[in-house]
């Protein structure tokens, strides 16, 4: 309905521009009456064509969404539980744990020996309690 209204308004405006030429052409030159009518008809047709073309223009332009370059997010840190040292029952191989001889033996035997916890890091990457013997 809105397009029809726009076309009608533009047609009336085009006709309003052409119609005053009818009176002056008719009054001044009675013999050119046919030329004035033809010019009016051409102006009216041109106004209707232009009005229809303007009214039929789309109201919106189709927009295409382009996803921007994704931002890089660092991965969340991985939390691993800390090892819990539990008292270990040690079979006696001759040296009692926590004695000076035991400390001496374990520190000489294992380079990764930790005297505070009594453990060493094995080839498997895990902590093991030193059993001297």
Q: Which structural class matches the secondary elements?
A: mainly alpha
Mean pLDDT rating: 75
Taken in chain order, the helices and strands follow as HHHEE
| DSSP helix fraction | 40-55%
N/C terminus separation: 102 Å
Name the shape in a single word: rod-shaped
Rg calc: 51 Å
The proportion of residues in beta strands is under 5%
Number of DSSP helical runs:
3
Major sheet: order of its strands?
1-2
Question: Major sheet, described briefly?
Answer: 2 strands, antiparallel
**How many strands?**
2
Indicate the low-confidence ranges by residue numbers: none
Main traits of this protein?
133 residues, mainly alpha, two-stranded antiparallel sheet, 2 strands, rod-shaped, membrane
Describe the structure.
Pfam families: BA14K. Has immunoglobulin-binding and hemagglutination properties, and can bind to mannose. Essential for virulence. May be involved in LPS biosynthesis or polysaccharide transport. With 133 residues, the protein is mainly alpha-helical. Among the domains are: 2-55; 100-129, no CATH class. The protein contains three helices and two strands, in the order H-H-H-E-E. The chain has helices at 2-28, 33-55, 100-109, and strands at 119-121, 127-129. A two-stranded antiparallel sheet has the order 1-2. A hairpin with a 5-residue loop joins strand 1 (119-121) and strand 2. The relative contact order is 0.10.
């Amino acid at each position: 309905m809105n397009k029809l209204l726009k076309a009608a308004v533009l047609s009336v405006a085009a006709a309003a521009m052409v119609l005053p030429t009818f009176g002056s052409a008719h009054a001044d030159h009675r013999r050119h009456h046919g030329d004035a009518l033809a010019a009016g008809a051409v102006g009216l047709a041109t106004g209707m064509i232009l009005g229809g073309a303007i009214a039929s223009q789309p109201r919106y332009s189709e927009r295409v969404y382009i996803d921007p370059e994704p931002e890089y997010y660092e991965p969340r840190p991985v939390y691993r539980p800390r090892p819990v040292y539990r008292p270990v029952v040690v079979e006696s191989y001759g040296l009692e744990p926590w004695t000076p001889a035991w400390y001496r033996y374990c520190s000489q035997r294992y380079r990764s020996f930790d005297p505070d916890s009594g453990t060493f890091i094995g080839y498997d990457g895990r902590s093991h309690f030193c059993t001297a013997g």
